[in-house]
Write a structure and sequence with these properties.
- The protein is an alpha/beta fold and about 550 residues long.
- Helix content is about 50%, strand content about 10%.
- A five-stranded parallel sheet has the order 3-12-11-10-9.
- The longest helix is centred in the middle third of the chain and has 23 residues, at about 285-305.
């Protein structure tokens, strides 16, 4: 077998035989500046198989976190859905489950995310627009009507108000006789990335981190099958981060949460196995595959180095993937079907545990029923027709993929260390360091597209093609949603026990002013049909609100 020296010599001889003009080509780099060579050989891979790759289901989990991966169980097909009132969203959930979806992923409207009731003056223009409007337990009861909570996994993309929405799910389950221990799902609950990339925060970082930690502790005791946090690189990437930044900032956030839990006195082996992650799948297929593999390996190593867990599950990076909304174009929207397929393939080849595929019309409106079904069918074709689920880590050992996995891991570790030298993730967010890094990356990428260096088909090249679909084919939220939602809110306030609500909110305030876990009083307030706005106003009065730093 040829050794590294022989391979390098043979490559030099090959290059000498090839037309030199053919070898002269523009320098290719990833968005992180990682060089991409013309050709990769075993000489380009410094990987020690047993140390750096190993076997699936064993550290460092580069090849997958489960021994049989998709041969044992396919990824969860979890389409993100929600709009209008709870009734409309419930119908969409039932439709998707009937079409073969295997888990729910709930989108909430902006007022729900920001802790305002639907009749608040700031809420009117956004009620039901980018997700479902949830004001009280009454809405959650309708949203989950007919959904078998003991069998269907529920993921909720909610952060600042995560504890309240989780309490609502628990309360609905209680009323149906379903034990909280039977509930399976995820609440995103990743507030740090809201300060970094998304903006749906309410409270300052310190009390927000307390709410996250309270949720971790409550779930560890009462909801053993529930993922109390999904640390999200997705929104960081959507804001313009590179692949390396997505990995580094996501894992740095996760380390911050885990350290906060340990500082609270929680055992690392009680919390780390329930952490989950959420990544984007962008357009560079092989880079994305390498990114997922690098993130999995780096997380396993960082947790071992910093927390020395006894349970091997504490080192597992379990992740959900969503195809890149930022990559979808309003121009020639049918092209988005191809983009989503490539991105979904990257997620599967990278070993995701669950997947959402975006719909072709999402650059124009909320997904229509037709386009949502096509997005689901994309996953099903990958799962059942493509053969990519037949073997574990099918690109493992590919010279380029292994070299890029190593490079992304090393660059991500360096960036995490840079953040730590700046005082840690909380400090880096407060000073705007992380936000500036992402803004600079987004600007560089926008410039490359504008100059035509990065081709976007239908946008800056090959622009002749079919126009966007007629407005009549797009999903539009009925303006009457606002009035229907307000009416239900008024009915809830009229029939509930006002004294019980006042007592429950007083208990929430008392817990916020002290050090007790906030989840039990929040759950009691939800049971009394206190609204999300009332609970958040109570917390605002104690915690205050966050004012973002100006980026200069």
């Amino acid at each position: 077998m040829a050794d590294e020296r022989e391979i390098r010599a043979a490559r030099a001889a090959w290059e000498a035989r090839v037309d030199r003009a053919a070898l002269r080509r523009p320098v290719v780099e990833t968005a992180d500046g990682l060089p991409v060579d013309l050709l990769y050989t075993p000489a380009d891979v410094a990987t020690d198989y047993l140390r750096d790759l190993g076997f699936p289901g064993e550290p460092p989990y580069t090849r997958g976190i489960y021994p049989t991966m998709y041969r044992g169980r396919l990824w969860t097909m979890r389409q993100y859905a929600g709009y209008g009132t709870a009734e409309e969203s419930n119908r969409r959930f039932h439709y998707l489950l009937a079409q073969g979806q295997t888990g729910l992923s709930v989108a909430f409207d902006l007022p729900t995310q920001m802790g305002y009731d639907s009749d608040h003056p700031l809420a009117e223009a956004e009620v039901g627009k980018v997700g479902v409007a949830i004001d009280s337990l009454a809405d959650m009861e309708v949203l989950l009507q007919g959904i078998p909570l003991e069998r269907v996994s529920i993921s909720m993309t909610i952060n600042a108000t995560a504890a309240i929405l989780l309490a609502m799910v628990v309360a609905v389950a209680e009323r149906r006789g379903v034990s909280p221990a039977q509930l399976d799902g995820t609440v995103q609950n990743d507030i740090l990335k809201e300060y970094i990339a998304r903006g749906t925060y309410i409270f300052p970082p310190e009390p927000s981190l307390r709410l996250v930690t309270d949720t971790l502790a409550y779930c560890a005791e009462h909801l053993p099958r529930w993922n109390p946090i999904s640390v999200s690189g997705y929104h960081i990437r959507e804001a313009g981060a590179t692949a390396v930044q997505e990995v580094a900032f996501t894992l740095a956030d996760a380390l911050t949460y885990l350290q906060a839990a340990v500082d609270r006195g929680l055992a690392v082996d009680a919390i780390a196995p329930r952490l989950s992650f959420f990544f984007a799948a962008q357009m560079n297929l092989l880079e994305e595959v390498a990114k997922f593999r690098a993130a999995r390996r780096l997380w396993a190593r960082l947790v071992a180095e910093r927390f020395a867990p006894h349970d091997p599950r504490s080192r597992l990076l379990r992740f959900h993937t969503q195809t890149a909304g930022a990559a979808l174009t309003a121009q020639q929207p049918d092209n988005n079907v191809v983009r989503v397929t490539i991105q979904a393939l990257a997620a599967v080849l990278g070993g995701t545990q669950s997947l959402h595929t975006n719909a072709r019309d999402e650059a124009l409106a909320l997904p229509s029923e037709e386009s949502a079904l096509l997005a689901l069918r994309t996953q099903q074709i990958l799962a059942y027709e493509s053969g990519v689920a037949d073997t574990v880590d099918p690109l493992g050992g590919a010279y380029y993929v292994e070299a890029l996995t190593d490079a992304i891991e090393a660059a991500s570790r360096r960036l995490i260390e840079e953040v730590e030298r700046a005082g840690g993730m909380l400090r880096a967010i407060e000073t705007g360091l992380v936000q500036r890094m992402i803004a600079e990356s987004a600007y560089r990428e926008a410039q490359r597209v504008e100059r035509g260096e990065q081709v976007v088909v239908g946008v800056n090249r090959f622009t002749d093609g079919p126009a966007a679909p007629a407005a009549g084919r797009l999903l539009r939220v009925d303006p009457a949603v606002v009035e229907r939602q307000r009416r239900r809110l008024q009915e809830v306030r009229a029939r509930r026990d006002g004294a019980a609500v006042a007592r429950a909110l007083a208990a929430v305030r008392q817990a916020a002013e002290g050090r007790d876990n906030l989840l039990p009083p929040i759950l009691d307030a939800v049971r009394a049909y206190a609204t999300i706005g009332e609970i958040c106003d109570t917390l605002r009065a104690v915690f205050g609100v966050h004012r973002p730093v100006a980026l200069v």
